[in-house]
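Question (not urgent): is this output format expected?
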Amino acid sequence: MIDDNLICQQWLRIKEKEVKSLTYDKYETIINKYLLPFLKENPMSTLTPIKIAEFLNLQNNAGLSAYMVNLIKLILNSICDYAHNEYNYRSIDFNKIRLDLDKEVKSSENLTKEQEDILYQYCLLHIDSLSVSILLALYTGLRSSEICALKIKDVHLDEGYIDVSKKVQRNVNRQNTDSKTLFHTVELSWPEKRQVVLQPFLIDYLKGYIEYDYDELYLLSRTFKLPVKRTYQNKIKQLGQELGFEISYGKLRNTCKDNCIKNNVSINTILNMLGISKIEINIDDVYNEEIDYKRQQMIKIQPEI
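Got this back:
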């Protein structure tokens, strides 16, 4: 078996190219301070969900916050996945690991800053369709129905924005077939039809996710098959149960709006980005913004992690 320390260092070298320096420093500190001492006594080849749960609960009992324990779990999960894929180590189902952590303070409408941070870290460590949908809802304010309707051609990475022109709609299937419902896309109109700015970190993230040149594929499924909105709603609910706090696309969108307001983003930019005509004030139906101005406004809420 290859040395566990070497596996961790290889994983770190990969992440060094993918994340900001502050995030990399955080990962390196957690590995050196918590994971390597644990793996010295419990080699990766012998790990089980029970051993991992005991280790993580022990850290929490020793005074480590639920946020830090969840972050350690995410990093260990990613390293174990790397060891499985590269060196054929046994796969570990981290979904089965249940932790007895201090309860997180829940917000009825928005994520707390710690919850937003742990969710952001999760997405950095899991580049997949669920993470893409989370980041788009959290940092552009897109609705889940709009995210599911996006095709690769709608994402303009060079210019740094997304064209939002469709949403997924569910209709009752009145034909004599097995399915009771039909899903299809419908065209949007003002104010929902809009352009939303992608912050620099999102552009880099999506470049790593989009692997196909054929722009007629749907962004989430990366096939011609329309993503199922309910599937992603269930996935994000399950993820919340794993991380210890409630997550929904509505809450992510509300958090985006709240972050914009707290960081003094122009109210017209907020309305335009969210595809709504009013919060407490109205926006004229002929109002539009240059993409560069929206970009200047949205940079204000880029996560400093």
